Amino acid sequence: MDLGYLVAGYPIEDTKATALDQFTAAGGPATNAAVTFGFLGGQACLATSMGRHWLTRVVREDLEQHGVAVTDLTPDTEGAPPASSIIVAEATASRTIVSLDATRTHAPAPADPRALLGGARIVLVDGHLTEPCAALAETARAAGVPVVFDGGRWRASHKDLLGHVSVAICSNRFDPPDAGGDVHAYLHDLGVQHVAITSGEAPIRWSSASGDTGVIKPPVIRAADTLGAGDIFHGAFSYYFAAGYPFPRALEAASIVAASSCESFGTRSWMVAGREKYAA
User: Fold this and answer.
1) Which residue has the higher pLDDT, 106 or 205?
2) Average pLDDT, the chain
3) Is 46 inside a domain boundary?
């Protein structure tokens, strides 16, 4: 769960600050991506750990409102879901996050990954729940379904997962220790077909195993809040790529959606304008 607060400037330690605005929403990389995928016109299913804690009712209601189906991998869990406290400074559009993220969350691989995959045309994994991500990625890749990897920061467990990945979209903080400074070549050597490295508002550098490379410049905007922009980018990319857009074109379309999300506060308010403004 994301609990976000908009303040004029970042608070001084040991003081109280009155927020200008606030929002509460289901959060996390795969969650925001699934909501974006559904908003653009797809049918998203989020496989995750939820359980029976009362806070999960709030999370479920938000996902239901955005048309995201949920497969709960740990339905009997009693513990509280991770909650993120987020402060967005209006003056700089920067965000500061305090969260347990998924460090204390564990979930087994689905009993039947093929049944969970169903007729999906694309799979997005963020690597946080290691066993479910690996099982579903392996099953999807074997079935010829594209697997997209959301790479924030490098973890040792990513190496095995990347062997089942078709597309890796990573931040510039993604730095495998044995990549020798060339993340593109490293990922292609692991069998990843398409690679893109994002760096905020800076150009996106992409490459394909065929040898094609390129640079995509995101739209220039006046940012109000960058929270969740990467998650939204991954969800939008997955939607366009599954719809048949070529890799570079899907990246470009996703960058437009992600940039738009930065023009308002929170991870949902950008959707108010409707999806008509985005590529069909």
Assistant:
1) 205
2) 94
3) yes
